[in-house]
């Protein structure tokens, strides 16, 4: 055991990490790589493709090449060490692996990341064992790419390090759209699978069913939710979280606002239409006028785990909150 294992796992699903791509996952799903729990094994649990493994496992290669998976870190930061765990993969572990890192802006698709730098050089692996690799690269990392040579299974990938926050996202204020702060859903185009109230619920969604999901659209329209904010305010950060929505995340989204004190029909852009990635917590700095209501439009349909609108209440908004407090606590 090394000292850096005490540092947080930057790739863990528990902090928002996700496996955004793998070239193959025929025998076992890539998402298992970042599960926070230790891997388990249950004997004689066979599915349509063979024994079910708690890890990522690719098919046997019959031609030269390697298999790869790209992981988006939930907490970008400086990596100090990596654990490649082949637990329970005994006759089907990869003989070698290496790990690369990338530092990118925004939320690109895996094939849009073109500049990778080494974190762990090509190294030999053993079956059913944790492998600990020191990392000396000092750059901030947002994504890692695990390569196994030539194929096989890896149970978990742990990426331990020190988080480094983007200062542009460190804005003060409160979540003006939070249910617990007094915001309410004012309207919704569709709530076939789950309630839009989930969008503004406390905490992070732990499964897809804890978000808002619409039916599949078969027309030219799009789905939307409108929210009456907890108080009039100025939004400084928009968070659109598609965590757990993988094959059913919206392709794009926008957020508009209005100040109903002035004109309830005068809507303006808070966040223009923006491309989204599946299973990703997106955070966007914005600079909006004062708003009392917000509307999230998703294109064309799909699911969203959470909507956060971080900002500062206006003096009128704060007075309103204080008045409601006084009326309901006396």
TrEMBL record:
It comes from the Bacteria. InterPro entries: Allantoicase (IPR005164), Allantoicase_dom (IPR015908), Galactose-bd-like_sf (IPR008979). It catalyses: allantoate + H2O = (S)-ureidoglycolate + urea. Residues 16-163, 182-313 form the Allantoicase domain. Keywords: Hydrolase, Purine metabolism. SUPFAM superfamilies: Galactose-binding domain-like (SSF49785). GO terms for biological process: allantoin catabolic process; purine nucleobase metabolic process. GO terms for molecular function: allantoicase activity. It is an enzyme of class 3 (hydrolase). Gene3D superfamilies: Galactose-binding domain-like. Pathway: Nitrogen metabolism; (S)-allantoin degradation; (S)-ureidoglycolate from allantoate (aminidohydrolase route): step 1/1. Its EC number is 3.5.3.4. Belongs to the allantoicase family. This is Probable allantoicase. The lineage of its organism: Bacteria, Bacillati, Actinomycetota, Actinomycetes, Pseudonocardiales. The gene is alc.
């Amino acid at each position: 055991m090394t000292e850096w294992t005490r540092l947080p796992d930057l790739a863990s699903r528990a902090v928002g990490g996700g496996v955004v791509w793998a070239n193959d996952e025929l025998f076992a799903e890539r998402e298992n790589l970042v599960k926070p729990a230790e891997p388990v094994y249950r004997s004689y649990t066979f599915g349509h493709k063979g024994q079910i493994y708690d890890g990522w496992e690719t098919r046997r290669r019959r031609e030269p090449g390697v298999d790869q998976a790209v992981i988006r870190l939930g907490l970008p930061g400086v990596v100090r060490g990596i654990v490649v765990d082949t637990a329970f993969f005994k006759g089907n572990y990869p003989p070698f692996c290496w790990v690369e890192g990338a530092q990118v802006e925004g939320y690109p698709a895996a094939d849009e990341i073109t500049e990778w730098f080494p974190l762990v050089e090509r190294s030999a692996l053993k079956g059913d064992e944790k492998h600990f690799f020191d990392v000396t690269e000092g750059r901030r990392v947002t994504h890692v790419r695990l390569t196994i040579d030539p194929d096989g299974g890896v149970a978990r990938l742990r990426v331990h390090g020190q988080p480094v926050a983007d200062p542009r996202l460190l804005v003060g204020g409160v979540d003006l759209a939070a249910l617990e702060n007094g915001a309410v859903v004012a309207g919704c185009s569709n709530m076939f699978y789950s309630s839009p109230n989930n969008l503004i619920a406390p905490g992070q969604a732990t499964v897809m069913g804890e978000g808002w999901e619409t039916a599949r659209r078969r027309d030219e329209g799009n789905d939307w939710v409108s929210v009456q904010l907890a108080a009039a305010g100025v939004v400084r950060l928009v968070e659109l979280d598609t965590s757990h929505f993988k094959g059913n995340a919206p392709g794009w989204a926008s957020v508009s606002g209005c100040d109903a004190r002035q004109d309830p029909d005068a809507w303006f852009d808070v966040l223009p239409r923006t491309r989204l990635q599946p299973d990703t917590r997106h955070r966007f700095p914005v600079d909006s006028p004062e708003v009392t209501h917000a509307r999230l439009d998703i294109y064309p349909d799909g699911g969203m785990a959470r909507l956060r609108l971080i900002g500062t209440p206006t003096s009128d908004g704060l007075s309103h909150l204080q008045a409601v407090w006084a009326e309901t606590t006396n």
